[in-house]
Amino acid sequence: GTDDYPTKPIEEPVLKQVLVHWNPNTCTESIGKVAPSYVDEPASEVPATAENTQPDVIIDWQAALKQSANKEDLAKDMLRMLIDFIPEVEEVVDHALEQDDYSREELIHVIHKLHGSSSYCGVPRLKSLCATLEHALRSGASIEEIEPEMFELQDEMIKVTTTAKLYLEQ
Q1: pLDDT tens for residues 3-61?
Q2: Which SUPFAM superfamilies match (predicted)?
Q3: Could you say which of 36, 100, 122, 166 would form a disulfide bridge with 64 (CB–CB 3.0 to 4.6 Å)?
């Protein structure tokens, strides 16, 4: 067994380190510790809010490239998959806002999936909004209580979809 694991988002150097560490045929002197790129960020129990991210950055292409190991085609594919998923999220958010008895669990599931997707695409405000919403919902907030953030999420998804065209058409 092992008690070692890489956390999401998985970074290639960290994954290699874990694999080398647990391979019995590896010389232990050659293993160096690699910290994930996000280790320098201060840890916080409460996720970053949309207000404390850069307000003018819709897509941080350098962050997207970093997540894709500087492979532009992969970064574009990841962004395209995010854009393809957004209509499904919009539909769920619309239903959640319109129906008083909409399933919080379904909303949490979709927001969690969008949060994960946005982690790989260099969309800091969208990622932050998802983190805020997911945290609030998992903490017991009602859909009515997070309505303003849901409207922000709708606006941000439109901005990301519109801005993504500039990167995907290149």
Answers
A1: 776 666 676 766 676 666 667 676 555 555 555 554 444 444 444 444 445 667 999 99
A2: Histidine-containing phosphotransfer domain, HPT domain (SSF47226)
A3: 122
Q: 87 and 19 in one domain?
A: no
- Judge if 82 and 155 occupy the same domain: yes
Task: Determine the structural domain holding residue 3 and report its residue range.
Answer: 1-43
* Single pTM value for the model: 0.73
Query: What distance in Å separates the CA atoms of residue 83 and residue 117, rounded to the nearest whole number?
Result: 10
Q: DSSP label at 120?
A: T
Of 93, 68, 73, the closest CA to residue 157 belongs to: 93
Three-state DSSP class for residue 121: coil
Q: Which of 43, 59, 75 is the last residue of a domain?
A: 43
Residues 65 and 115 occupy one common structural domain: yes
CB-count exposure of residue 97 (10 Å: 0-12, 13-18, 19+) = middle
Kindly state the helix (H) or strand (E) to which residue 93 belongs, with its residue range.
helix 72-98
Chain segment 13-29, per-residue pLDDT in tens: 666 766 666 676 765 55
